[in-house]
Each structure stands twice: as structure tokens, then as C-alpha cells.
Amino acid sequence: MIEQIATVLAVEKEGVWLGTTPVTT
Fold first, then answer.
1. What pLDDT, on the 0 to 100 scale, is given for residue 5?
2. Contact (Cβ atoms closer than 8 angstroms) between residue 22 and residue 7
3. Confidence bin at 21 (pLDDT 50/70/90)
4. What is the pLDDT of residues 6-16, one digit of tens each?
5. What is the 3-class SS of 1-25, one letter each residue?
6. How far apart are the first and last CA of the chain?
7. d(CA 18, CA 1)
8. Sequence-separated (6 or more) residues with CB below 8 Å from residue 15
């Protein structure tokens, strides 16, 4: 759970938040 949250925060920080599909490449 924590890892998923951290990923979401990282994605938002990158500014590539697509609403429901976080880009984790």
C-alpha cells in the first residue's frame, strides 16, 4: 500500500498524472 502511494506521489510530482493511469516507466 505504502509503495503504491509513494508511486502516486512521485507521478504527481513529475506532472504526468493522467487521472486514473499513473505512468510508471
1. 83
2. yes
3. low
4. 887 777 776 65
5. CHHHHHHHHHHHHHCCCCCCCCCCC
6. 19
7. 20
8. none
Query: What's the length of the chain?
Result: 25
- Distance (Å, whole) CA 18 – CA 10: 13
Cell of 19: 487521472
What residue has cell string 509513494?
6
Report the amino acid identity of residue 3. E
Question: CA–CA separation, 3 vs 5, rounded Å?
Answer: 5
Provide the whole-model pTM: 0.38
Per-residue cell: 20:
486514473
